[in-house]
Amino acid sequence: xxxxxxxxxxxxxxxxxxxxxxxxxxxxxxxxxxxxxxxxxxxxxxxxxxxxxxxxxxxxxxxxxxxxxxxxxxxxxxxxxxxxxxxxxxxxxxxxxxxxxxxxxxxxxxxxxxxxxxxxxxxxxxxxxxxxxxxxxxxxxxxxxxxxxxxxxxxxxxxxxxxxxxxxxxxxxxxxxxxxxxxxxxxxxxxxxxxxxxxxxxxxxxxxxxxxxxxxxxxxxxxxxxxxxxxxxxxxxxxxxxxxxxxxxxxxxxx
Length: 255
Description:
It is a single chain. This protein is mostly helical. Helices cover 75% and strands 3% of the residues. It has one domain. It is built from ten helices and two strands, in the order ααββαααααααα. It is globular and about 55 Å long.
């Protein structure tokens, strides 16, 4: 049986395990919608100027929470789940089976991307129903799909690389959250960074992939100009994450 068939079969089992934990599955999908409702209730009544265009903050948060959903599914969840499985000895046992290592890791990445797509569709439908957010279509939809796929794959690779700096399962949540939460604020996910935002915040945000991914997602929901440079920067971070994961990823618990 070739690696592709084994990967597809492993995706099936990974997906089955995901839905067999209904509490985790429910909050995976409810979490971004909860944030969307809370942020729009608190901050969504005004307008914000993004890229010279004035948009409703409620619409802005639909795009922001869609980006947040992908980052959560593909970076945070992979980094935490793999760290927990490594600490429990699951990865070591998997490594000792005939299943190729690549099939196991690809299955986790592809399943996370599948969940991310479902979350984005959910955010788009919710935003269209309650906040009059536009849904990408036509040529914009194709570019939006490119951003979504490249972003999901890149953040999944970075999630695998993140496991190298997580010493054990107990340290997983604080290490992962300390890595991603500041970037979510500095990249305008939780608080819109209008054209009047401090220059140093916008400068820091442009270094990391979260801001560029969020900007790419906004092209579909807000109608901002699409920039291939955003896609390339996110992809470059993904390649860097893949190289770091290939070099430092560990299948055995840290001593």
